[in-house]
Amino acid sequence: MGGDRMRRAPEIVEFYQSLMKRGEARQTGSRGARASGGGSKAARSDLIGEITKNSPHLVANYSSRPNTVLQVQADVETQGDFVRTLAAEVRDATFSTIEDVVAFVAWLDEELSFLVDEQAVLKHFDWPEKRADALRDAAARYQGLLQLEKQIASFVDDLALHRDAALGKMYSLFEKTERSVFKFLQERDTADAKINILSRYKEQDIPIKLACVNLAKQYMMRVVSELDALSANNTEKSKEAALFKRLKEQNKEVLLHQGVRFAFRVHQFAGGFTSESLAAFDELRRRHADGTH
Predict the structure, then answer these.
(1) Which GO terms of type biological process are on file (predicted)?
(2) pTM of model > 0.70
(3) What are phi and psi of 63, to 5 degrees?
């Protein structure tokens, strides 16, 4: 459990900046009308007319579903207290974590499923549609992040792949995650400012960030493995052409910088590294020290 705890690692930032200073690093890349409470036949007739006006999709299906409008009318007349109670819950709910939002939306959807046609019925009440939709959107985006987290957490480096393909695969997966998380946070903050969906919670609480740190560990270990392979067969160095030696050293330098840049980027994104990822980074830094002597 302790290995999963993240902490800031200033040594990663310092090492990255030192490479940059030496010039060795490169940039990579609608509310409807309220229902009438009257019970007369005329009022019911008006209500049916209002339902068909506010629910055109029901009118289109009316000939094949003659009882649908009557069922909606029945819900509007009998479920008013139920809907108003749910509306108050939506307006007044506060959340300390995004998981609370997900749980609330699941509960709300289950409650609303008792209505014969949610959209058609709710149009006749003072329903907080914008806030309910924003809650559903936030829950859906977060669940999308959880699916992405599962994809990253289950990722295993395929050593049979060429290093460029393997490193590129990990880099693309991280970039996709980074974009998704930033978009989620931006939309969360925008919605929060408008309709107070969430109280602020730590960005480190987003579990996908830990998965990214573990992905960085795999990336760095692959770089270390490739650096070791390039450094092998030192006994044959004298037989190598000068040009080949120079190309090999340049290749090692590029690989090292790729590893350091990726480590730095994930560290800044996640807000820290685990002890296991720091150990992988130390191995990477050691290869740099060996190469400068």
Answers:
(1) chloroplast relocation
(2) no
(3) -65, -35
